Amino acid sequence: MELDIRELEEILSGIMQPNGKRPWQLTPIAINKLLAKLKGACRNVIERLNFFKFNNTPDSGAVSSAKKFQICLTVLIDRVSENEEMYLQQIKSIAEKKRLSIFFKAIQSELFLVFQYFKQRLFSYFDLDASLPIVIAVKHEVEIVDEINIIRNKLIAIALDPHLIEIIISPFEKIIKKSKLSYRAIYFLQSIKEGIDDSTNTTDVLQALLKLNFNSQRFFNYYIEKIKPVNETEMPVAELIVYYTYELKLINQVAMNKNSGLHSDTLSLRDQLVSWLAEEIYFLEKKLSLLPGGINTKVLNTEPSDKVLTNLSVSNLSLALKLLLDTGIIRHKNVTELIRNVSRTFRTEKSETISEDSLRNKAYSYEKRSVKEMKDVMIQLMNKLRTYD
């Protein structure tokens, strides 16, 4: 079922300028008739929302329809606010201004009911990153400023690094300054306030923000500097490997809120940290193997006796792995570890041993020939899939 609010748009157009008249020129009876008509249209929309097909994993068609509905409804609410402001400037009578404001508040009230019902009923489809209707945003901006001050005072009270405080607060101050408030910002700021409530030191705050997925680039850089040992340049390579491996273990064990996040279009903070640590460990292991008397990492990574044979070349295998990762079919926090496991457990018709470095490099720098060959493989898979119908 398609979500449609054209009926609402038509009715609102008639209400804004009924029969060429100004709203304040209407009689109370005429106003009540218009509002009753709007109320009926809003009830019809809510009724359609009740029958809107949805599930726990929204399909792209439903998401597109719901997103369009949300945008259109937001535009309608903003249009009401803009018209109210425009009309109020055209009249001088206090009594008429008061009557006009009551009239427009009644319109907004009906539209708010639809907006709130949509958000509650179809929350899995609700775009948390979309801008709020202006009148709702203005109300929440005051609350956000209060929340920011509460969080800042809490962090100052536990003597947190001023630089870290600024990193935490600045994204929300920028949102307020640019007037681009979203529900994601509102919910996430509230989560931070609750998450740091019991924090007494920097470690507590870092853990809280990691669990909440505070995935800003600045916080990621700050966290990395905190992870690095103070005497890193003086530590033996073997000790650094143990140190970073332990840090990797700790971060992997953090129960992160998957539905939370400062930025929806950015990798989670944990995935970023895991990737950085894995790359650092990989580099250190290579460095250790090259040092005089260093440990041969190939001996440590014992290969299985019975490898999986594939008719793909190493180049095509690496491209297939990249494709599965980029499309989200395979989700693995530690890509370096995944590449290592594939190189250890697969063999090709031409190579019994696949170099981890080769698989890794070809995944990042794939050849045009491999793309063409993998397209042929995909066609073979599709043709085979059709035989399963």
Description:
The protein has helices spanning about 5-15, 30-50, 60-90, 95-120, 135-155, 160-180, 185-195, 200-210, 215-225, 235-250, 270-290, 295-300, 315-325, 335-345, 355-365, 370-385; strands at about 310, 345-350. It is mainly α. The chain folds into four domains: about 5-125; about 130-210, no CATH class; about 215-300; about 310-385, no CATH class. It has a two-stranded parallel ribbon. About 20% of the residues are buried.
Task: Give the CA-based shape.
Answer: flat
Oligomer: single chain
Helix content: 55-70%
Percentage beta strand: under 5%
Distance between the termini: 27 Å
Strand order of the largest sheet: 1-2
Query: What is the H/E order?
Result: HHHHHHHHHHHHEHHEHH
| Total number of helices | 16
Tell me the domain tally: 4
Mean pLDDT: 83
Please give the radius of gyration in angstroms. 29 Å
Helix/strand-derived category reads mainly alpha
The residue ranges in which pLDDT falls below 50 over 5 or more consecutive positions are none
Note the main sheet. 2 strands, parallel
- According to DSSP, the number of beta strands is 2
